[in-house]
């Protein structure tokens, strides 16, 4: 699948700089938004969001689907997502390969899945339900994890099995690969080589925190590390698809963030 009307490099839209967006001289090619933040748009942001939705191509990147939960999907929530996507004519919806709800209560955390054949089947069954309901291909993002109990598969086996058996496409978070490679002692380049890159439809690039000597955390709160830029180049060389700069914490002024966006764009344009 090639993403419709999504090309080149995008930026994750955040409230911290939303009111500055109309005044940008150089604009991102597209924006990624969190639908949960906009399903019931706060009145303060309603006008500016409508303006941005009319000006930019949008990709929705959700947080609360909880596709890996052992419980049934929340169809009330999924109905809200569908109505939102249709209202703003958003073609592409991505989510996290994780779970975030327990006994129908949101944890507001992206929790890791047990890497087992049973969980592969659980995810694949839910992908079918979601895609049939939304009338869109679902895009799933690889997550960071620090401890995963009861796993019987490696991460790469688990990931590949899901994307081979389901109809989902992949959002490859390059920083997540790098963070996991440090915490779990594997080669990130061999990981990329082992992926079916034909399933990848876009990339995330972000920063992380070197929290302790033996622990890095995917915070999205720092500039992108040089090693992650290098891994980004490797991914684009193998498979050039759109790429997005993501920043969620310690968000700098928009002009500084756009300087980092321009690094991504410069790398992207070289391939």
UniProtKB/TrEMBL annotation:
InterPro entries: MbnB/TglH/ChrH. PANTHER family: UPF0276 PROTEIN HI_1600. This is Uncharacterized protein. It comes from hydrothermal vent metagenome. The lineage of its organism: unclassified sequences, metagenomes, ecological metagenomes.
């Amino acid at each position: 699948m090639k993403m419709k009307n999504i090309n080149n490099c995008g930026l994750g839209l955040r409230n911290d700089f939303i009111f500055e967006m109309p005044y940008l001289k150089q604009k991102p090619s597209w924006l990624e938004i969190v639908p949960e933040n906009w399903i019931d748009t706060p009145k303060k942001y309603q006008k500016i969001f409508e303006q941005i939705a009319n000006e930019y191509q949008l990709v929705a990147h959700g947080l609360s689907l909880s596709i890996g939960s052992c419980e049934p999907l929340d169809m009330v929530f999924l109905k809200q997502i569908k109505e939102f996507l249709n209202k703003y004519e958003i073609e592409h919806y991505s989510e996290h390969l994780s779970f975030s709800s327990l006994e129908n209560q949101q944890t507001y955390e992206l929790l890791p899945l047990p890497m087992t054949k049973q969980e592969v089947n659980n995810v694949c069954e839910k992908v079918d339900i979601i895609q049939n309901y939304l009338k869109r291909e679902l895009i799933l993002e690889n997550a960071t994890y620090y401890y995963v109990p009861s796993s019987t598969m490696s991460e790469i086996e688990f990931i590949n099995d899901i994307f081979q058996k389901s109809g989902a496409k992949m959002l490859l978070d390059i920083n997540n690969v790098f963070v996991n490679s440090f915490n779990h002692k594997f080669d990130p380049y061999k990981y990329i080589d082992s992926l079916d890159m034909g399933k990848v439809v876009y990339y995330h690039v972000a920063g992380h925190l070197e929290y302790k000597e033996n622990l890095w955390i995917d915070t999205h709160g720092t500039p992108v590390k040089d090693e992650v830029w290098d891994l980004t180049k490797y991914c684009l060389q193998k498979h050039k698809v759109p790429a997005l700069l993501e920043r969620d914490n310690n968000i700098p002024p928009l002009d500084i963030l756009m300087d980092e966006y321009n690094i991504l764009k410069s790398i992207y344009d070289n391939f």
